[in-house]
């Protein structure tokens, strides 16, 4: 044996087959032939090796642990995970002792290769964990026994299935619980040698076995067995499934997989299968097939007003009525929510569809009595016919969906047959939505302002803000082309708040430039009006922009008022307490009751341009305008006429007692800079600043009523 100080690292002849000598830094200075052969490194490579170089990642602490132990003990042992030159993983149990004094403080190590037994133990644990996880996920009972038949594991599920508690069955013969186990053909054994073998195949064909429970009863189970062996013994793992229980569970799972749990109608999965089958038959027999997309009208109102429990009962009854008015070979499925799909197959000609659809409408339109409620609902139906509108299931359902939306947008309680023009309309709609999202992100919207005038004095009393969209192609669109879509997309609330902030900032900038206190009017969208924090948002915007509250006029139309009828008065009064005035826009086009109008805190009533444009020629429009003005006068509301374009309209409205007006006759909507130039030219040095309170009319103002309500829209005399 050479000294550790010598330059070589020759093989050492020793009684131990696996032996090496190391310095305290881990350098191997001597080793046995068997050690070198096991690791597979060339003899010259050992000169540069440390024991730490042989350990797999994660065992950096092992050498320091060995040194620490040897400081207080004469010997220590540790299991090491080493990597041979060919990449093979070895599990070596090392025994470390100080070398003789002649070896100058070196450490002597002898090793025992336990790779086979240790890997067998790992495989046993791995297999056991895998089977236990499988049993847990499938609610199966798991048992494990050795080659002698003694039970070594008995899961809680096995306790419940067979009645034997774990402590009573462990180490007993498995055949006392499952008598037929010994008669089964032994599953294929996985032997362990060298490298760890793959986990045993647990998906063997199950056997039907009758087992005897502890109480003497018998239970039929599906038994799957898998076996593996270690270097000492063989183990068998069994998974047992109660056949009767799992048959019921399978039926329940199939019901959930293919049927809607609420209505028990076929769901989307089963619909797809049946529609594919019906399409194949229709194409083979050259008979037409129709797909009907049914959507209930205003179902959300039922849920919101009567509760989801009533809504669910209504959906069940709708499903039953649809089934009752169709043939047995037709399919009625629920997609979700208030949407249903009907597949009509086997009818002779598409001309018979109207009669079938009338039958469906008649069935659905009859009142539904649920608890103490009498509910009437209608439906919108879109129809796509094979082969004209498509021969694939997805295409037919999509086209029927498109036709349904056309029916709903037109008037509801009707049906529409699909045509290719609808498809193009949908593409245009999707393109519009994409462009609108980009417009919001890119800031393509801008504001125009139009002044309003006191009809008698023709002086500016306020300005109204209008939204425009300058598309990337340079075209400028008015709100009618995009506002409804922005509302549907849910973008109008946040965009509206930004518009409100810009309008208020412009109004404040006019005052900072020496302009009079001119009120700024802006229309709130429906989604803006229903915001829970609307009061706080407006107060914050007024504070941050510096616009006085009495210089802000908010407008809502009758549609917004009707959609938020329950909270409308609360919202209006809350904002009005800030000092902001309210106008009811487009009056005359909706269905606002006079009783409701009397109780709401509006300041101004705007007469829609629809009644103005044909004045004075059309007597009926003149009568309508006169009635609106008389009603507003009795309610103490200031009136504002929209869309005045001719002198005749101006003079007639003035004679009828209308207070204010706007339109192209006076000034068309313009950019902020243009408006500021116009206002500066309108204001003479001797003219007083524009006030914020509307005056009573005098005799010279065409005998307007003296009790006109104060508003922020007019001047003080």
UniProtKB/TrEMBL annotation:
Known SUPFAM superfamilies for this protein?
Answer: EAL domain-like, Nucleotide cyclase, PYP-like sensor domain (PAS domain)
**Could you tell me one molecular function GO term of this UniProt entry?**
catalytic activity
Per the record, the domain of life is Bacteria
Q: Which residues form the EAL domain?
A: 429-683
Any idea where the PAS domain is? 127-172
Q: Which Pfam families match?
A: EAL (PF00563), GGDEF (PF00990), PAS_9 (PF13426)
Q: Which InterPro entries match?
A: Biofilm_reg_signaling, EAL_dom, EAL_sf, GGDEF_dom, Nucleotide_cyclase, PAS, PAS-like_dom_sf, Rev_trsase/Diguanyl_cyclase
Q: Where is the GGDEF domain?
A: 287-420
Protein name listed in UniProt: Sensor diguanylate cyclase/phosphoesterase, PAS domain-containing
Task: List the top taxonomic levels of the source.
Answer: Bacteria, Pseudomonadati, Thermodesulfobacteriota, Desulfuromonadia, Desulfuromonadales
């Amino acid at each position: 044996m050479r000294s550790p100080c010598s330059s070589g690292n020759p093989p050492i002849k020793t009684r131990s087959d696996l032996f090496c000598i190391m310095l305290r830094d881990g350098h191997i200075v001597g080793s046995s032939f068997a050690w070198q052969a096991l690791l597979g490194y060339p003899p010259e490579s050992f000169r540069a090796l440390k024991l730490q170089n042989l350990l797999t990642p994660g065992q950096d602490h092992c050498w320091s642990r060995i040194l620490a132990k040897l400081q207080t003990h004469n010997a220590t042992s540790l299991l090491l995970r080493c990597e041979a030159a060919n990449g093979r993983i070895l599990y070596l149990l090392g025994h470390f002792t100080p070398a003789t004094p002649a070896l100058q403080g070196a450490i002597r190590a002898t090793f025992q290769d336990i790779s086979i037994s240790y890997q067998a133990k790992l495989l046993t644990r791995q297999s056991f964990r895998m089977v236990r996880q499988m049993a847990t996920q499938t609610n199966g009972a798991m048992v494990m026994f050795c080659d002698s038949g003694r039970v070594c594991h008995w899961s809680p599920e096995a306790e419940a299935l067979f009645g034997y508690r774990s402590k009573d069955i462990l180490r007993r013969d498995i055949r006392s619980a499952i008598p037929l186990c010994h008669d089964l053909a032994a599953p294929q054994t996985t032997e362990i040698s060298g490298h760890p073998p793959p986990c045993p195949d647990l998906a063997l064909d199950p056997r039907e076995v009758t087992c005897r429970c502890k109480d003497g009863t018998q239970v039929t189970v599906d038994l799957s067995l898998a076996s593996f062996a270690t270097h000492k013994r063989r183990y068998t793992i069994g998974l047992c499934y109660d056949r009767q229980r799992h048959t019921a569970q399978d039926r329940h799972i199939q019901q959930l997989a293919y049927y809607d749990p609420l209505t028990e109608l076929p769901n989307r999965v089963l619909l797809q299968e049946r529609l594919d089958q019906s399409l194949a038959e229709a194409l083979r027999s050259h008979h037409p097939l129709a797909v009907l997309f049914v959507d209930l009208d205003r179902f959300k109102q039922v849920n919101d007003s009567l509760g989801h429990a009533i809504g669910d009962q209504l959906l069940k009854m709708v499903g039953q009525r649809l089934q009752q008015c169709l043939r047995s070979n037709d399919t009625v499925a629920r997609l979700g929510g208030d949407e249903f799909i009907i597949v009509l197959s086997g009818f002779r000609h598409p001309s018979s569809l109207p009669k079938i659809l009338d039958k469906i409408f008649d069935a659905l339109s009859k009142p539904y009595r649920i608890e103490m409620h009498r509910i009437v609902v209608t439906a919108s139906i879109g129809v796509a016919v094979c082969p004209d509108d498509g021969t694939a299931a997805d295409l037919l359902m999509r086209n029927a969906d498109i036709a349904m939306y056309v029916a709903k947008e037109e008037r509801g309680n009707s049906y529409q047959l699909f045509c290719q023009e609808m498809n193009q309309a949908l593409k245009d709609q999707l393109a519009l939505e994409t462009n609108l999202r980009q417009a919001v992100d890119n800031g393509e919207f801008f504001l125009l302002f139009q002044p309003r005038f006191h009809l008698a004095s023709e002086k500016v009393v306020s300005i109204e803000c209008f939204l425009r969209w300058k598309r990337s192609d340079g075209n400028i669109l008015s709100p009618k082309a995009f506002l409804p879509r922005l509302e549907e997309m849910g973008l109008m609330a946040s965009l509206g708040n930004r518009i409100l902030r810009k309008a208020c900032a412009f109004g404040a900038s006019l005052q900072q430039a020496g302009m009079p206190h001119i009120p700024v009017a802006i229309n709130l969208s429906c989604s803006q009006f229903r915001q829970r924090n609307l009061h706080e948002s407006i107060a914050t915007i007024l504070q941050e922009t510096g616009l006085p509250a009495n210089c802000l006029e908010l407008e809502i139309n009758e549609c917004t008022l009707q959609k938020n009828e329950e909270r409308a008065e609360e919202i209006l009064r809350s904002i009005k307490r800030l000092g902001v005035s309210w106008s009811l826009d487009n009056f005359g086009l909706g269905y606002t009751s006079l009783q409701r109008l009397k109780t709401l805190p509006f300041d101004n009533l705007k007469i829609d341009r629809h009644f103005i444009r044909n004045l004075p020629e059309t007597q009926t429009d003149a009568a309508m305008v006169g009635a609106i003005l008389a009603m507003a006068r009795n309610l103490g509301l200031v009136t504002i006429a929209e869309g005045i374009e001719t002198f005749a309209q101006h003079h007639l409205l003035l004679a009828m007692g209308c207070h204010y007006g706007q339109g192209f006759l006076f000034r068309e909507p313009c950019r902020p800079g243009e408006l500021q130039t116009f206002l500066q030219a309108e204001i003479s040095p001797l003219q007083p600043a524009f006030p914020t309170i509307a005056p009573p009319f005098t005799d010279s103002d065409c005998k307007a009523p003296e009790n006109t309500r104060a508003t922020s829209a007019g001047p003080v005399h």
